[in-house]
């Protein structure tokens, strides 16, 4: 199996006995790592902002920042798409954004339902919703946006 850019980057950190396993699952592992980093970008924007403005607006702004980060990180490190020509990039970024809008809609509805209707803590709800959002986004990215042709 060919080593990905991500695998080559983290290879020195992987204990030798685990390298074949990590190599085998490198795409999924890289997606999860990028997903964690994307979630951190989302949280770094959301938590301070939610103290200043309504949590749904903070969710939207943090989502936008995370989408920009995620698009480029997924393109370069997870799916290693080599094409950067403008028409292709714009179509791909558009598809990525539309799919992320679907997961954003899920997140906003989840936040509203669990916070407004069920009275749960918005911070806890935000964290739990992110797990589902990461899974949805992987499926969208793998099957629709960065699929190998």
Fold and architecture overview:
By secondary structure, the chain is an all-alpha fold. The chain has one domain. It starts with a helix and ends with a helix.
- What is the arithmetic mean of pLDDT? 90
Quaternary state reads single chain
Distance between the termini: 19 Å
Helix content: over 70%
Note the beta-strand portion: under 5%
Structural class determined from secondary elements: mainly alpha
Shape: globular
Spans of at least 5 consecutive residues whose pLDDT stays below 50 are none
- Largest β sheet strand count, sense and barrel closure: none
Structure annotation, total helices: 6
Count structural domains: 1
Q: Keyphrases for this structure?
A:
single chain; 149 residues; mainly alpha; 6 helices; 79% helix
List the helices and strands and how they pair.
Blueprint: H1 5-10, H2 19-24, H3 26-50, H4 55-78, H5 86-117, H6 122-145
Helix pairs in contact: 3-4, 3-6, 4-5, 5-6
Short characterization:
This protein has one domain (17-145). It is built from 6 helices and no strands.
